[in-house]
What does this fold into?
Amino acid sequence: MSLLLRKEWRAVLSPDQLVLVSVAREFTRRGLVRRVLASELIHCDPAASGEAPWEGAVRTLEAALSGMAKCKDAATLVLSSHFMRYLMVPWSDALSSDAEQLAYALHCFRQAYGPAAEHWELRLSPGPAGLPQLASAVDARLLQALRTAFSSCGVLLTSLQPGLMAAYNNCRARLRHQSAWFVLYEPGCLCLALLQHGHWSSVRNMRVGADWREQLPNLLERESCMGVSESVPEGVFVWAPTLENMAFPDSGRWQMQYLQPLVQPGLVQAYEGRFAMALSG
It folds into this structure.
């Protein structure tokens, strides 16, 4: 005998595509069991002239949910690095509350990105006292549009997270206490992060072309020369599930390897690289 729970949707949204996976969940004698019901990659409508770059993607998401999801389904949404901004916020002993820390983070974003930061919603990833904290920011209008899209379909949005955090959390056990580069690849975008003893030291988003693997050694050298850390590790862990069978070119001193996503047992049979982010949560 088993107890069927509400269906779970796992979505990964980027400007040009939506990955949508539906997962059945049920309690059995073996505990909670998950299995993939369907998975789909949908090309997003482009944003019209004068629209924000995310508006076409949100319309595509809402149309897909209204055609497939049912009221009271649950959902997890992962946002592409294309939509995100990251910053390392210096530690300050003068900050004594969460509100003060967020205000300070907003000040740092203003200095780095200008007045546009006023319209962003910020989150801080807590770290050890005395070390910089990783802050993420996203257009507040995008978040409101996403919440409205799920709400209008009666779907409960239980988790909304940046792709960087979803990928890192999936591989956290392997990266724990590591001093290494963590590289998240998406078509057209590379997120380059440095970990020192398992803690964030620097994070940078950048636009890249199809030759990003050939350019990666140069990008790492450039980041190293910018003084992001006194000691720069040579190990490089790359999250690029759609390309994990493609060898890296000769990279000189850099020791590059792909990270294999960890997938829950019940979802392994449905695994494909293009659905890795959705299936790895």
Summary: The longest strand covers residues 31-43.
